Amino acid sequence: xxxxxxxxxVHEVHSTIAAMADSDRxxxxxxxxxxxxxxxxxxxxxxxIKEGGDGTGTITTGCLEDEVVELxxxxxxxxxxxxxxxxxxxxxxxxxxxxxCNGITDILLEPLDASFEPVASAYADDDxxxxxxxxxxxxxxxxxxxxxxVRPDGSxxxxxxxxxxxxxxVADAAADLATNGKSRSIAVPGELVTVFVDxxxxxxxxxxxxxxxxxVPLVECGKRNGFRVQVIGFRGGTDLATRFPKADGTGxxxxxxxxxxxxxxERTYAVxxxxxxxxxxxxxxxxxxxxxxxxGLMGPRERFEEILESYDEEQRRTxxxxxxxxxxxxxxxxxxxxxxxxxxSVVAEALAVHNDRTPGxxxxxxxxxxxxxxxxxxxxxx
Amino acid sequence: xxxxxxxxxVHEVHSTIAAMADSDRxxxxxxxxxxxxxxxxxxxxxxxIKEGGDGTGTITTGCLEDEVVELxxxxxxxxxxxxxxxxxxxxxxxxxxxxxCNGITDILLEPLDASFEPVASAYADDDxxxxxxxxxxxxxxxxxxxxxxVRPDGSxxxxxxxxxxxxxxVADAAADLATNGKSRSIAVPGELVTVFVDxxxxxxxxxxxxxxxxxVPLVECGKRNGFRVQVIGFRGGTDLATRFPKADGTGxxxxxxxxxxxxxxERTYAVxxxxxxxxxxxxxxxxxxxxxxxxGLMGPRERFEEILESYDEEQRRTxxxxxxxxxxxxxxxxxxxxxxxxxxSVVAEALAVHNDRTPGxxxxxxxxxxxxxxxxxxxxxx
Lengths: 382, 382
Hints:
2 copies of one chain form a homodimer. Chain A is elongated and about 70 Å long. In chain A, α2 runs antiparallel to α5. Chain A folds into 3 domains: 3-116, no CATH class; 126-200, no CATH class; 205-354, Rossmann fold (3-Layer(aba) Sandwich). Chain A contains 13 helices and 15 strands. In chain A, the strands form 3 sheets. Chain A has a 6-stranded parallel beta sheet with strand order 12-11-10-13-14-15, with helices on both faces. A 5-stranded antiparallel beta sheet of chain A has the order 3-2-1-5-4, sandwiched between helices. By secondary structure, chain A is of the alpha/beta class. The model of chain A is unreliable at 91-100 and 372-382 (pLDDT under 50). The longest helix of chain A has 17 residues, at 164-180. In chain A, a hairpin with a 4-residue loop joins β8 and β9. The interface between A and B is large, with 95 and 94 residues. Chains A, B: Residues 22-87 form the XdhC- CoxI domain. Chains A, B: This is XdhC family protein. Chains A, B: Residues 358-382 are annotated as: Disordered. Chains A, B: InterPro entries: MoCofactor_Util/Proc, XdhC_CoxI, XdhC_Rossmann_dom.
């Protein structure tokens, strides 16, 4: 597997799934459906393995990739989905010269054929969905790989393969997971079936209000770290799509039209960096009328104080009621001053806020480093 | 100026300086030599501007770049170094629709000719040096741009243009700045001259002990963020240079030979991620016999505890005496689990340790966000 494809961000994995579902070239999708012990990736981590072995996406840190590629070719050949359990908990293995990835990992392998198109369009849409797939079945009418795409309101997409009783039984969990983007396996009570419910939440959006040179490294860093990135200028700047080719979208607007021209919701992480005092002060006031959980403002603390002082009574009240969402000076305190270092500190801060973390050293964190989704899922790596 | 060249890390700026000093194509070097108020870059920030206007490196967030490019072409034409002061403190400008970069910035512009070769080789070497350049002179025998490369021991390189009395007067400051990589202007008492002392410290090294797929995004993230990156494998892995093309160096060794084959000093930030228990435990013990200020270990807390338990009495004592330098689980607590997100969290942590920062939100930091080098240098951006 080529290394940069291995570390492809989730949006690239999704677009590869869509491309392969719509292609003559055969491929398989590998998904981590359960982990116990210290696994590198969480349930829901995916890799597309094309016939011949090229892959996109990450299942493990490399220790299982060869086995998975081999199994993928069998699944492509047979057309039959399967779940395989890798048990690397063996003490001898840990102590010896083995692969050293301790933990038990269940991986679902499915042929990426036309039956995947509803899933692929679900990924491509910006609507939350849960992909519910049978991973264990003691019933004649359900085989491993049967799946149905479920919306948060409980409705299902065309082509669903699971009985409605199963879908109904997991509908609440599916709605939650579709919204928070997490994934887990559920043994459906009384149904002799275990399904993997893969929550596909829309990616968080990094909305950058500014078009300076310093926006380029921020766009790139945001994309790599799993944000959709939108660049918004206020000065009718030309050629934004050319200047910021990695951005998912670029556009210009008058700052007064900001909230009508663009959507700022609870998934939008906004960074105000027009470097123009008038535009920045207006943008801050407008953005705090929305539900953005994060508003980073480039510039020193004193500049934000000047902005506050420049507001009228009502604007100031609005802004001061939202100071918890205002991050200025923007970024984590890493001490770096180069353009890439500043981008790293800003994206790291947005990630921490998105994941509801207090961004100190992990070594100082109490409890497990991953949010607990399943018993025993406590570690990153090895 | 092309945007990705604008955000070039410092090592690329240095290699461009070396290339242009040794080239027929004419170019100028722009260096921030003093700032007051809220400037985007600190003293020592550099951009190379080639004849025609192509640039590499960052002086401001874009607000002065056009002016600097124009001035650079004059300096290239005249062959005469000059210092120019940009005063963007004007209230009208801040409030109006102007460039909005408030602060006073002094920029030194010099023709990048063959006289720059001693400086270029100083950059290329991994030895600390200070480049001392006259930026103000009321004397007949010294003109703006006269320079001498000074070593921490006070010795000077060939081709020095400044009188020895000036070099001696700033030798102590030069030694400090050469070591910490910071830069500042010094008015030399009684000499009617102000010099800019540009400390060029060797870049910090990110030493990655591991060769898995997950090393690739870490190499790239480390490079962008200003580290020299060394990848070290223990298993005689082939083709490391091909697999990690962005690394400055790759190699394999037996873990027992680690400290003899490689240098680990107070500038080395080590990340242990072989994913092999035996190799990791040996590497941790070996690295803690060196002066590395940072040892990040991939894997959950429990794994490090297992490693500790596996040591004999003496090894355990050595390691336990150094727990302050051990960062495990490695990285900042950002909550991200993708390969790029993990790389971001690790590099962010190494940066914070390198810059002696407590990595919380900048908004919560007491005092200025930059280390104070000159009075009034308090802000990042705008």
